[in-house]
């Protein structure tokens, strides 16, 4: 119900906002773009607004723990703040250092105010070290979702299976119900946006959408990891993590300015190497569905050997797709 409501609200908002975005938030093609015609950006506003409005009614009507409700409020404030940063950057690009500081502030606000009780490795890491690593991982996840949002439908193909799997985990009791509702709302918001971003896209998420979606997804995965399901939390977004992290390391090794726009990601290489846009996003979606199933196996059988086996299988499948993107489609 939350997913369907969020989808409808997001779709309606896309229709309402698009004329305004055409006028004030037009993304013009450049040498690093995957699109060839000016396209409005800012569809993320519809995704996020639809998600949080759809979530509001069940939170109001259902008997929800006060801490869970407070966590959602903290998230909403952080998402709004990061959305403002993204909107500003869409219209008038900010210096990389300023963006990073503001992103870290929003991630830290969520980490310390929405999930202060969560510990992933209390037996191995002091609290200060774990919090520092969680902050670093959160900032990186926010940015990697932004970096990966460079092709029509790729964020939909990447994040909808993740959000749907987390919503299902909420229904099964693996994570708390409110976190599951939040995942369902995000899934619905992205589905409502999907028809407008279908290749060839009529609307982009923009930084106003991709950055907050990265923050929301990072929080959801952090919640999942906090239940002891660390392997599942890594497996679900493994394609996005692998593509963006390997690309970053390769650019660092070449001495490139990693904060500048580029076309070095594997999914971008794929289009250069002969894959169609639908060929790329279709393969990413299928991989993410497979990763969701593997994550489900790791949740069903929590024994340590099973966790390592699931991580290994997910890594191999992801590596095979990255290799295929880097080398191009088979020639018959």
Task: Walk me through what this model shows.
This protein has helices spanning 2-24, 44-61, 66-91, 96-113, 127-148, 154-171, 177-197, 207-225, 230-235, 238-253, 266-272, 277-300, 304-327, and strands spanning 26-27, 39-40. With 332 residues, it is mainly α.
Describe the secondary-structure layout.
Blueprint: H1 2-24, E1 26-27, E2 39-40, H2 44-61, H3 66-91, H4 96-113, H5 127-148, H6 154-171, H7 177-197, H8 207-225, H9 230-235, H10 238-253, H11 266-272, H12 277-300, H13 304-327
Antiparallel strand pairs: 1-2
Helix pairs in contact: 1-2, 1-7, 2-3, 2-7, 2-8, 3-4, 3-8, 4-5, 5-8, 5-10, 6-7, 6-8, 6-12, 7-8, 10-13, 11-13, 12-13
Strand count, sense and closure of the main sheet? 2 strands, antiparallel
Helix content: over 70%
In round numbers, the mean pLDDT is 92
Residue runs with pLDDT of under 50 for 5 or more positions: none
Instruction: Identify the overall geometry.
Output: globular
The first-to-last residue Cα distance is 46 Å
The largest beta-sheet arranges its strands as 1-2
Q: Structural class of the secondary structure composition?
A: mainly alpha
Count of helical stretches: 13
Strand content: under 5%
Order of helices and strands: HEEHHHHHHHHHHHH
Rg over CA atoms: 19 Å
Number of strands: 2
Key terms for this structure?
two-stranded antiparallel ribbon; mainly alpha; 332 residues
What would you say about this model in short?
The chain has helices spanning 2-24, 44-61, 66-91, 96-113, 127-148, 154-171, 177-197, 207-225, 230-235, 238-253, 266-272, 277-300, 304-327; strands at 26-27, 39-40.
């Amino acid at each position: 119900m939350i997913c369907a409501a969020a989808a409808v609200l997001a779709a309606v908002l896309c229709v309402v906002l698009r004329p305004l975005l055409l006028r004030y938030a037009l993304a013009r093609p450049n040498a690093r773009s995957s699109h060839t015609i000016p396209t409005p950006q800012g569809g993320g506003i519809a995704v996020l607004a639809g998600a949080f409005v759809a979530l509001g009614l069940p939170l109001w009507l259902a008997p929800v723990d006060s801490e869970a409700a407070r966590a959602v409020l903290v998230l909403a404030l952080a998402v709004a703040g990061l959305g403002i940063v993204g909107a500003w950057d869409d219209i008038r690009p900010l210096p990389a250092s300023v963006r990073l500081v503001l992103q870290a502030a929003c991630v830290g606000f969520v980490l310390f105010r929405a999930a202060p009780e969560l510990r992933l490795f209390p037996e191995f890491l002091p609290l200060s070290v774990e919090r520092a690593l969680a902050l670093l991982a959160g900032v990186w996840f926010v940015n990697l979702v932004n970096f990966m949002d460079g092709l029509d439908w790729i964020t939909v193909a990447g994040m909808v299976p993740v959000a749907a799997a987390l919503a299902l985990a909420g229904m099964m009791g693996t994570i708390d119900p409110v976190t599951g509702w939040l995942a369902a709302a995000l899934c619905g918001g992205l589905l409502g946006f999907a028809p407008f971003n279908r290749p060839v896209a009529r609307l982009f998420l923009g930084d106003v959408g991709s950055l907050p979606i990265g923050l929301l997804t990072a929080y959801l995965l952090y919640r999942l990891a906090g239940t002891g399901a660390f392997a599942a939390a890594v497996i679900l977004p493994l394609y996005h993590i692998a593509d963006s992290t390997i690309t970053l390391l390769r650019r660092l090794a070449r001495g490139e300015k990693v904060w500048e726009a580029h076309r070095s990601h594997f999914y971008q290489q794929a289009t250069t190497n002969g894959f169609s846009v639908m060929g790329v996003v279709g393969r990413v979606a299928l991989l993410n569905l497979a990763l969701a199933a593997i994550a489900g196996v790791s949740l069903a059988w929590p024994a340590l050997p099973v966790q390592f086996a699931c991580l290994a299988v997910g890594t191999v499948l992801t590596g095979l797709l990255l290799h295929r993107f880097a080398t191009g489609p088979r020639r018959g």
